[in-house]
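TA notes, week 10

Several of you asked for a full example with nothing omitted. So below is the full record: structure tokens for the whole chain, then the designed sequence directly under it. When grading your own attempts, check the secondary structure regions first.
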């Protein structure tokens, strides 16, 4: 049976009428992109508060553009250095950015309080709130947390997380998946439409910055990058600053900073709803150090050793990136007795590192104490076999940012609420793997503490 016949059979098994001639035409037209008609339809749609008509021209540009996370050599050096340097210059991870995050957390707490202890799925609201922290950096604005924006941000983060998963159907059979997407078969077709909407949103923000060139600030992420592009074009510098990389970097920073932090926090909340004794200890420590009203500062983390250990254990216990993003051997090497030729794609097993019984006793158990030193008053910040943000030169550049966010959200929630499962239920630890390893959607109760 041919590939085309296999696809037709698969479609019919899903209740879809798929003709073999349609598949042949798609293969001939290299249908890794949606049709021009579909793109035009998306461009003509209006999306309240987020997507407006932005007059994009028909383009062959990839929906998921390249970024510093997916390139090598000099291109990687230039793109990563620019992103990291700009984050530092704009104060990300510093006191002024902390104040911005604290304000976002307070708004999030207010939204939680509206439910008055009723069970609900916090995922969408949490995704939108966390996404606003990175949005305030790269776009210099936050999106109001209303139903339209919450849905847009959640769908964008979820779609790219699933579409860019390091393992799975699309990774193993990319060409077959692209054909099925173009035929509207499988959930990947829906993901791709959401990704197009998000990509258009990113391009719109870039176009707005270009139009406001007279007011440009070279220290801002987009404005500074546009200056680099103009310098490259005017002086023929031959560097890698171009619009494709700009769009890709914006997408990578936005999704990377949103999906990972949101997923880590979701697992933490499920752990608290499961292990109420641990949650009580967190409450006690926070009450003794901060009370129920004082806002947490990053400098306070050493005074909350048990709470910080809970956050670290959450990242080990449920490794949100169980398989690291792919790496490529740049030369022939021998590792552990294995010959690895140049050009080999390497995928590290982060889950194995965090569940190695040589370093972790009963690794399947949630035990924050394993990160505390003997006196219980200090945290072991650099334990062996612990790499939640990867390792080496290509580790996550946003480690400090993510830890600040997790600490601020977690402490604020623990100050105000007791996190519980719906009455008569227990939290589910089932999960799915996309860009991150995230729990299945489920409801929790946030009961106001007296």
């Amino acid at each position: 049976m041919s590939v085309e016949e296999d696809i037709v059979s698969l479609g019919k098994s899903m209740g879809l009428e798929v003709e073999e001639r349609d598949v042949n035409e798609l293969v001939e037209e290299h249908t890794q992109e949606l049709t021009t008609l579909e793109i035009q339809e998306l461009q003509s749609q209006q999306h309240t508060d987020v997507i407006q008509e932005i007059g994009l021209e028909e383009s062959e540009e990839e929906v998921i553009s390249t970024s510093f996370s997916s390139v090598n050599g000099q291109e990687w050096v230039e793109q990563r250095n620019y992103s990291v340097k700009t984050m530092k210059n704009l104060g990300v991870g510093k006191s002024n950015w902390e104040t911005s995050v604290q304000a976002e957390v307070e708004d999030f707490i207010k939204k939680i309080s509206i439910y008055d202890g009723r069970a609900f799925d916090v995922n969408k609201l949490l995704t939108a709130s966390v996404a606003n922290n990175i949005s305030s950096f790269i776009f210099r604005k936050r999106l109001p947390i209303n139903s339209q924006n919450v849905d847009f941000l959640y769908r964008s983060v979820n779609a790219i997380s699933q579409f860019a998963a390091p393992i799975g159907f699309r990774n193993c059979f990319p060409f077959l998946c692209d054909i099925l997407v173009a035929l509207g078969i499988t959930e990947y077709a829906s993901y791709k439409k959401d990704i197009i909407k998000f990509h258009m949103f990113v391009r719109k923000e870039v176009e707005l910055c270009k139009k406001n060139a007279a007011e440009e600030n070279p220290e801002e992420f987009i404005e500074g990058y546009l200056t680099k592009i103009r310098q490259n074009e005017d002086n023929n510098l031959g560097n890698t600053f171009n619009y494709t990389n700009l769009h890709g970097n914006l997408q990578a920073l936005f999704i990377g900073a949103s999906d990972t932090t949101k997923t880590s926090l979701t697992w933490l909340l499920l752990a608290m709803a499961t292990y109420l004794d641990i949650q009580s200890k967190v409450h006690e420590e926070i009450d003794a150090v901060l009370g129920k009203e004082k806002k947490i500062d990053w400098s306070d983390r050493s005074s909350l050793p048990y709470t910080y250990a809970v956050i670290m254990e959450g990242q080990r216990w449920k490794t949100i990136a169980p398989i690291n993003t792919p790496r490529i051997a740049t030369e022939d090497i021998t590792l552990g007795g294995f010959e690895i030729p140049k050009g080999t794609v390497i995928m590290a097993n982060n889950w194995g590192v965090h569940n190695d019984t040589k370093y972790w006793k009963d690794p399947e158990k949630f035990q924050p104490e394993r990160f505390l030193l003997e006196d219980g008053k200090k945290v072991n910040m650099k334990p062996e076999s612990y790499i939640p943000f990867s390792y080496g030169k290509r580790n996550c550049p946003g480690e400090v940012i993510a830890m600040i966010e997790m600490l601020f959200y977690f402490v604020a929630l623990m100050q105000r609420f007791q996190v519980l499962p719906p009455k008569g239920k227990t939290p589910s630890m089932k999960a799915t793997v996309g860009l991150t390893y995230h729990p299945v959607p489920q409801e929790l109760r946030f009961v106001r503490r007296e």
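Residues 243-274 form the longest helix (32 residues). Use that as a sanity check on your answer.
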